Amino acid sequence: MQELNPPPQRLGGSLPVRMTPIVPALVLAAQLVCVLALCGWAFGLAGLSGGFFGGYRMQPLTAVAFMTIGFGILLSGTSRRGFTGWVMALPLLIGCSALAQELSGLSLGIDRLLFPGSVVHQFRSYPGRPGVLPALGILLLALASLAVISRAPAVRRLSVVFSCVAIAAAAISGTLLPLGMSTPGPETRYALMSLPSALTICLLAIAVVALRRQYAWPGSPDCGFGSATIQTCLLLCVSMPVVSALGHFWAERAGHASAEMIEIVQAVAQVALSCGLIAWAWMRIARESGARSAVNLALDSAPVSITDVDGRILRWSAGCERLYGWTSEQALGRFQQKLTGTPPISAAGIEALLGGARHENEVTAYRRDGRALRVLHSCQAVQPRSDLPPMVVHSMTDITARTQAERAVLASDARLSLAIDLHELGIFEWSLATDRFVFHGHAERLFALAPGAFEGGIEAWKQHLRATFGTTFHTPGPPETWPAGRHPFRLVAVEGGIAKVVEGTAHIHHGPGEGDISMIGIVMDATEREQRAEMLKSRESELRSILETVPEAMITIDGDGRIRSFSATAETLFGYAATEVLGQDVRLLLPRYVRPSGKPVVPGQDGAAETRITAGLDRHGNELPIEIAIGAAEVGNQRIAIAFIRNLREQLAAQARINELREQLLHASRASAMGEMGAGLAHELNQPLTATSNLLGAIDLMMAREGDPEQVRCMLELARQEVLRAGSIIRRMRAFAAKGELDIQAEPLEEVIGETLQLARSRRRAPGVRLRYRPSVAAPSVLADRIQIQQVLVNLLNNAFDALAGLNDRQPEIIISTRQLNDGHIMVSVIDNGPGLPEAIINRPFETFSSTKVNGMGLGLSICRRIVEAHGGCFSLRNVPDGGAAVEFTLPTFAELELKAG
């Protein structure tokens, strides 16, 4: 960090007064001149007080005033404001009283306070009184000394102005007498000053300037100009008027030229010098302004900001706008730490900055949109002028990408190290220049070397490999003749009857220089891989043997649909030998073959293989009913299909026989149910037949008595209805007992259940059982075979009647209810309040020949489930919490099917 010039010592913005060694020396010289002047008055030596021009001498009060000012300047250099103010009261009083007496023409009687016997003999209008210019010099120096210690910046800057004016006045008026003005007139005395007074004023004024040299004589200005340039300009500006005035006076006194010529020469010289100085200054200013503009433009493009010591933003560059997303108008006046989300600088850090330190660290900042940035933040304190408070310049560099790259590299190194450690890899390096090996990771262990023990070169390494593994690195010739590139190697050592296999690759690199040959390689333990390869070959042979003996045929098909393998079972099934079909199109055997579209077969994953029933062709062109399961697999870069084929000819024949037996069983079940309901149905028929007989008897009696014909007609209608009722009962019995194919059609559910209840109510083996029907919705039409669904309901009701038989502790009841489901089905529930179902039936409800009845065959629930599933429904049973059993099944509704078809 560039050291502040000079560094601030407090947060006030003002530089403290620094007394350099030249200040006391100048004050001491001025005090010596004043002491000599007083000695000249005391001892009557006019030369001491007049500077060898005895006609115009330094007055005693003038000497006292200058001595007091010198003492005050020394106090100003020590920053003692109170003492300086009191000390400067005396020269101010002397200067002001002298000017006041000159302007008013009065005498206050203080002119002859010192050496009255000597001062009265002077050739002056007012002996002992300081002259006009010496009095002005006293006032200017006193004011300059007071301005040095002022707290106001504007007043402090006036100290140099007062000093320069005093120097110019003293330089002109003090040199008139040495240049030839020996007998000044009365009016000329206002423009004259004794040589000691002029010398004292110059010494004291220069001392004041030295106290404030950062204004009048800066050593390292921050304005683009060098210190020599500014100092030269200052000397020219001060000396040009003095030299011009003195030259004009000397030429006029010497009489070498006329007054007009002197005026012309003086004007031309001043104008020429002024124009030259202005032109030179203008060029320097233009050049420095261009350089400053370029620097400002470069700084503005970079992320640079300027804040006060509290962190409030004073300047916000365009680079900061691009980096953080805040515009200059939005950022100015705000605290940078809050704006960017960076941690604030501590008080100790601020003190270190003001002391000349430079602060630099990496911080996490945030853009306006909330995105985090990693920023290299550096700051330093500067103070352009002593009248301005210190400022902090912040420079930000976006290192987000670099940080991410470093983290990625570190993560990559960590992953590489982890991979090397997990996979037990080894890395080795060798160069011809050093002929030394460097091992990393597990390289020493894999090469059977003791850790850190091997220090030999390439030949020693080859000998070790030959002694340990029986072979060596196969690269003939000396290293200088080795070809560049990759060189794989494989080393095998037998330990305890177990082969230890080490594999690796060495990469040989040739550099640009002669003999610049190096080698880097990687080595790994391949023992387990070799063992797995042998095991894989063994298992592959075993798998081939198993596949040749499985009862299902196996065919492997490539991506072009050609046969790659043909098992022995496939030869038996299709009648072809494997040699006849290998390489042939698979449609020779499977005309409807479709390539699998799914992913490769994953063992144990549902739906990984596509299974379907199709037809194949044997050697003689006969169709074979087969079930084929096709899965996809990846073998290297090639996609193949594996087809497992099962012959369904015997299975279909067995299924047909089972269906025939099932129909016979259903018919037998209905016949058995009719036998059980025979007595009840006879009772049902007896009622309409008895009523018909009674009605016919009554009609005969009325006709014999010539009764009312209308009553006879009504009784005949009643008899006819009873006969129709008996016929309806007989039709339901015949339809229920008939044997036929499954005939699914739209059937009103309420009619199906109503007819079933008529059939069930005829049963009298469980007297007192209350049978109720509770439809929860208006039951729609269902797609069903009326007779088979009635058979299901009759079987369920018979089971309920049997369960309620002998139940005396409660009123036996059977409830049939319906409920509409959301999936287009309707659920039918048969619920009783009996003892419920045993756990054996709940756990295995549909196992054939499993029954709770003494004489039951265990076929009822199994038959009911098959009938419901044939209709596309579900069948289930459960126990009711309050006691009893519930059997439920679903049927598709006819309205839902119409909606889906539409």
In which order are the strands of the major sheet placed? Answer: 2-1-5-4-3
Question: What is the total number of structural domains?
Answer: 7
Structural class based on helices, strands and sheet pairing: alpha+beta
| Low-pLDDT ranges | 1-16, 598-608, 854-858, 896-902
Topology, number of strands: 22
How would a crystallographer describe the biggest sheet?
5 strands, antiparallel
| Structural shape | elongated
Cα-atom Rg, whole angstroms?
63 Å
Q: Could you estimate the helical fraction of the residues in percent? A: 40-55%
Please, what is the average pLDDT? 75
* H/I helix tally: 30
Measured by DSSP, the beta-strand proportion falls in 15-25%
**How many angstroms separate the termini?**
87 Å
Fill in the keyword field for this structure:
single chain; alpha+beta; 902 residues; 7 domains; kinase; Beta-Lactamase; nucleotide-binding; membrane; transmembrane
Describe the protein's architecture and organization:
The protein is an alpha+beta fold and 902 residues long. The protein has seven domains: 22-217; 219-295; 302-405, Beta-Lactamase (2-Layer Sandwich); 423-531, PAS domain (Beta-Lactamase, 2-Layer Sandwich), CATH 3.30.450; 550-646, PAS domain (Beta-Lactamase); 648-740; 741-902, Heat Shock Protein 90 (2-Layer Sandwich). Helices cover 49% and strands 18% of the residues. The protein has 30 helices and 22 strands. The protein has a five-stranded antiparallel sheet with strand order 2-1-5-4-3, sandwiched between helices. Strands 7-6-10-9-8 form a five-stranded antiparallel sheet, sandwiched between helices. A five-stranded antiparallel sheet has the order 12-11-15-14-13. A hairpin with a 5-residue loop joins β11 and β12 (563-566). α1 (22-43) packs antiparallel against α3, α26 crosses α27 (786-804) and α27 runs antiparallel to α29. The longest helix has 43 residues, at 259-301. The two termini are 87 Å apart. Mean pLDDT is 75; it is low at 1-16, 598-608, 854-858 and 896-902. GO terms for molecular function: ATP binding; phosphorelay sensor kinase activity. Residues 680-895 form the Histidine kinase domain. It comes from Novosphingobium lindaniclasticum LE124. It is an enzyme of class 2 (transferase). It catalyses: ATP + protein L-histidine = ADP + protein N-phospho-L-histidine.
